[in-house]
Amino acid sequence: MFPSDLASDGALFLRLARADRAHARLVSIDTTRALAVPGVVAVLTAKDIPGDRLFGMIQRDQPFLAEDRVLYDGEALAVIAAETEAAAREAAALVEVTYEDLPVAGFPPAPGDPLLHDTRYCIDMDLGFGTQADAAPAHDIEIAFETPRQEHAFLETEAGIAWIEDGVLTLSVGGQSPHFDVAEIAAGLGIEQTKVRVLNPMMGGAFGGKEDMNVQFPLALATWITGRPSRLMYDRDESIRVGVKRHAFQTRCRVTADAQGHLMHADVEMLADAGAYLAYTPVVTNQATEHCTGPYKFASTKVRTRAAYTNNGIASAFRGVGGPQSLLGIEQAMDVLARQSGIDPFELRRRNLLKAGDLAGPGFRLQTDTLLAPLLNAAESGALWQGRDAYRAAAPAWCKRGVGMASVWYSYGLGAGGEAGATVRLSQAPTGRFTLELGVPDVGNGNLTAFLQIAAEGLGARIEDLDYVMGDSAGPNSGATHGSRTIYVVGNAVAKAASELRAKLDAGTDDPVVEAFFQPVQPEMLVRGIPHIDYNYIVQVTALEVDTLTGEVSVAAIENHVETGRMINPQGVEGQIDGAVAQGLGLALYEDLVLEEGRVKNPNFTNYILPTLLDLPASTRTYLYENPDRTNPLGVRGLGELGLPVTPCSIANAVADATGLRFDRFPISPQAVLDGLRQEQGK
Amino acid sequence: MTTVNVNGTKHAVETDPRRPLLDVLREDLNLRGSKHGCGEGECGACTVIVNGAPVCACLVLAGSVEGAEVTTIEGMDNDPVGTEIVRNMANAGAVQCGFCIPGFVMQGWDAVQRASGKDPETLRAELGGNLCRCTGYAKILEALQTTAATRPVSPIRARRPDPVPDLRLNGYLRPATMDALRDALRDPGEKLRVIAGGTDLMVQNRHGLETLTLLDLSGLTELTRIDSFDDRIEIGAGASWTDIRENAQIREHAPVLALAAAEVGARQIQNRATIGGNLANASPAADGVPPLAIYDAQVLCLSAKGERAVPIQAFITGPGKTCLEPGEIIRAVSVPVEHDRQDTVAFFEKSGPRKAQTISRASVACHIWTASDGTRAVRIAIGAVAPTVRRVPEAEALLRETPDAIEAAADLVRQAALPISDIRASADYRMDLVQGLFKRGFLRATQA
Lengths: 683, 448
Ligand SMILES: Cc1cc2nc3c(=O)[nH]c(=O)nc-3n(C[C@H](O)[C@H](O)[C@H](O)COP(=O)(O)OP(=O)(O)OC[C@H]3O[C@@H](n4cnc5c(N)ncnc54)[C@H](O)[C@@H]3O)c2cc1C
Ligand code: FES
Ligand code: FES
Fold this sequence. Notes:
The structure holds 2 protein chains of 2 kinds. Chain A is of the alpha+beta class. By secondary structure, chain B is of the alpha+beta class. Chain B has 4 domains: 80-150, DNA polymerase, domain 1; 167-216; 221-336, Uridine Diphospho-n-acetylenolpyruvylglucosamine Reductase, domain 3 (2-Layer Sandwich); 342-447, CO dehydrogenase flavoprotein, C-terminal domain (Enolase-like, domain 1, 2-Layer Sandwich), CATH 3.30.390. Chain B contains 17 helices and 20 strands. Chain B has helices at residues 21-28, 80-92, 101-115, 120-125, 138-149, 178-186, 201-204, 241-246, 248-253, 255-261, 267-272, 275-281, 289-294, 312-315, 393-401, 406-416, 427-447, and strands spanning 2-6, 9-13, 47-50, 53-56, 69-71, 167-169, 172-174, 192-195, 213-216, 226-228, 232-236, 298-303, 306-311, 316-318, 321-322, 328-336, 342-351, 362-370, 376-383, 390-391. Chain B has a 5-stranded mixed beta sheet, with helices on both faces. A 5-stranded antiparallel beta sheet of chain B has the order 10-11-16-12-13. The longest helix of chain B has 21 residues, at 427-447. Chain B is globular, with a radius of gyration of 22 Å. Chain B starts with a strand and ends with a helix. The model of chain B has no long low-confidence stretch (mean pLDDT 96). Chains A and B meet through helix 14 and helix 16 of A and helix 4, helix 5 and helix 17 of B. The structure holds flavin-adenine dinucleotide and FE2/S2 (inorganic) cluster (2 copies). One FE2/S2 (inorganic) cluster sits between chains B (95-100, 132-135) and A (155, 204-205, 444).
């Protein structure tokens, strides 16, 4: 049962009345007509919230329900609870709002834009190390581009139900952080945390887009106030309109090198569209900052990162946060450098790999060597790269073909100062069956299977002998499912619990329960969140065809070479890479949330274009290389994200191989391709 | 009261026949295996089998399945094909969050049977109507390939619906006979809306269906007939795109229409959507219109007064506008047939924002042949690049005289376009595209 499948008898249907302005002062909200609709039980506004009216994971700046102003189109104004869905919909349309319109702050910020909070830039960091050498570089390359807002498009929209059980307000919802939700809900209702329980059953996808609160508070408020169970599922257009998104970025990446291709100076400037509230913006900009010069050694770097508040909805976490927006800079620059210098792109990277002790990115010291050299060697001798001349030569008359590569790093776990560790509980019943309890949910990423495998192995038991309680705030606090941390952090806690319980059982205990805590060693902090204890590595080769008559790009084949750490479930790892590649391909070629004056112009699957099976290459091969990680006892790495950021990079490089063109905007549109080809011809 | 036969059991449901079948399955029958992913036919998570063909349950009216046999994911438990797919998906690690999986099993059920013994492309082409956001599709495809290789056969078969009497409920009429239809057209009333497959109408009225007065044509088997005569083919307005792309006479005599039928949406849409609906909806991007334009088809319009034939180009008068009068419906489309065509070049090229389930940014229908008397016929029409579909007489004349003047003809095709800019493409790009599509179609058709 998914959150949207849950329904209890007599549950009230909820709908949210939403603002249809991107920026306005709220003069009044009149609920009289909505309340008069037959079947409507309650219409609740901010005034009905008994406790704190603001929430937020990092900063409590976002109102549960807008009170005196609206900062983005679709911001929730009132919760309608009704006996039927039709009545709730009707009433939602009858909430009468008087606005005083205000000018809209767009992206990038323009002089004269209104200030939405006390500062325009919620993030403004100036980092880097060393000083740029005086010697004139042999190569001086600059890549500049922008990336769009990307929609998570989990196939199940935000959904859930709430009810009261033995005095405890209980929610079963699609979310990623049950313990955090409990704290927010309790604060909003002004009740004890022990009076709230949040369950996260298996849900139809999350990808970071269900970390922030979505249906939780409306459900909690309606059920707490009416005493009746309630249910709510966002419509697809509602989900796309108001759900959190990947941050749009404007990025400029300048790289200099000497004649032998040794990197000298990197100068990166990034500007992110934070949207109306902070949400996870600092995490995103940190990740972008940390990774933006790639796994390569520079003599000096300068990294400027900013994020601006705008009226463009809310931007937050999305798988591979900050990755594509920053790595597209360095990986395209490396590709250009390889072409300019005549050095093979694999060799160029090998020449510049970071080693333990080197200063990296914005100026932190790397703990361990990068693990890229063997992956680069394997990809270089792989079938796709070796067959590139034959592939190119076989292009139909109206097509140009290209083969490109990229090699990226992406951290796993939470950054310095961010990881609070995880607790899990493992016990054995008199029947001999084991129960594993942990708080984090499985958001469709397969971590449940991995946990059971780890526990079974540690106990010397079979998976069939294990029961589990997962995604439940009543369970031990193991944090949230995000940041590629669950296998790494929670997995190690499970392993620890299993070995402790086994030792206890071997010693003949009469109390077969253990609670184990694991927190990874934290690296020295540059700024909070930077750096991470370690990084994942992937090399990707992509072959594609560009239709010179229509500008369409068709990806024919992708080959991945991945460093996996110890593998718990190889099929699961492949699946994570495949899925991330598809989302990266979407970002590279199709997915573009169109905003005009803060309004989403394509809030549906007809016009927000997700790749179908036919848009993915007919051939994808993923080669896994297993090197146990040394920073944690299990030797695992978190591999949920890394396939995403690498994909736009290798696609951009393959399009450049086919056409010689670089693009200043992603997704690369067929129109831009045609325009580019025409300009080339005109030259 | 609506009676639906689901997974072999007849259920009498107290429901409005104008609700989507998906809501009735999930809410009234508590069959929650069919998922709600979008409610607009795009994601396929709601796929169920109606009379042997997978369709999107979110775009099927509850009333229209009375007398039909509906199979949902719950009914796959004892189907040999369904269980084999589920087993292979588990073995391949094809399931991540699992939300799309019921839809893939249902569409896969049809796809593996169609693709059995054929090349892998055949199977892929059947799966464009199901979105998965987690897996990147690779392992789902692998599981279905494994299943197709075993050449499975399901006892669930394509069947025509049981004849049911006229259904007449508040705001909903589904006539069972042409006489009852004529009666209904006699005094249509102002609010009457015709519904056939519902794939346009239900998307356009997603939350207001129960406020409409509907005349549902889906119970009229006569409207689904495709009849072949010596001089013409008469395609019933209720014929689906699947019926059309698979019809041997159409493939022979109006091949470009068959090619276009295969490009409408994806399989679930093709199984449900009708040619009549495509014409009456009159979208500039409708893929059915350019092929009908090149064959100079006639639209046969029926009303209580009788029937009239309207040339296709006169039938559609603007975006969303036709010459249908109140109380008039499309009964059939008549496509003239010419025998003994020689040296045929026929293609339908369309391009949308992605490769499957996509709305045309531009399309080109083209058929060139030499007639039995030696004269050369060149027919070209373009879609989605003007308020209505346009023939391109200048390019046709040029190619009649100078068969290899492809570049010049493509320029003329471009000049015939009068596009607008919208969310899917700019006007400039549409001009480039229609020109490029013409050239590509020609190159593909002549080089193959
Ligand atoms: C996911 C998706 C993808 C799609 N892809 C495409 C595509 O690629 N190409 C394309 O061309 N279309 C596409 N469509 C649009 C649609 O499927 C087609 O236009 C289809 O042929 C409409 O037929 P229908 O029977 O479903 O029409 P309905 O929705 O039943 O009716 C459409 C309109 O026609 C009227 N109507 C229907 N039948 C008659 C009749 N016999 N006489 C008079 N009026 C009638 C109705 O009143 C209504 O106004 C897509 C739709 C969806 C949901
Ligand atoms: S719910 Fe998406 S196609 Fe029906
Ligand atoms: S497995 Fe999650 S959408 Fe397909």
